[in-house]
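Lecture 7 notes: from sequence to structure.
We start with the chain below.
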Amino acid sequence: MPEALITYFGQLAKVNCDGNCKKACGLNGRPKVQLSADEDDYAFLADDELGEAPADPGTYEGNDAKPESAAGFPNKWCVRECERCARSKPGECDLPLAIKSFSKRVYNLNWRNAVEKSRDEIPNVNELDEISGMTEAEFRAWAELAGERAQALSDILAKVFTPAVREET
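Predicted structure tokens for the same chain:
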């Protein structure tokens, strides 16, 4: 996986990507699905929902276009336009930087990503064969874990949907 240190707006930054240029469409070109009437409520499609991206998606940063392969990483297009490129926050270039993944849909609204992550972590109650084969102690542990995940999800949703209270001036 390509990784590099660059100067970004006058500061040192770490950038990386998964090197899968054949699936890179660019932030403005990656196919997405609209999830509600809110224009910001959409999800980028997962890699397995797409074919290969165009070799030239028609977007440029300065004189830089999408590279043909990860050997061209990083250029300005990668850092500013590629949806697969991760960039460190200012002053954090010495910290590990997670590689972005499009193995699943990526939601624009952070709370939707949290909901999807919680769904993956909550044991599936429809797996009756697994449940029926559990001892009572194993079932109690499974139920406790499911309850903790459900409470975490409930807390996330409460934060997202609780209206902010503003003071009138």
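Points to note: The chain is about 30% helix and 15% strand. Confidence is low (pLDDT under 50) at residues 125-129.
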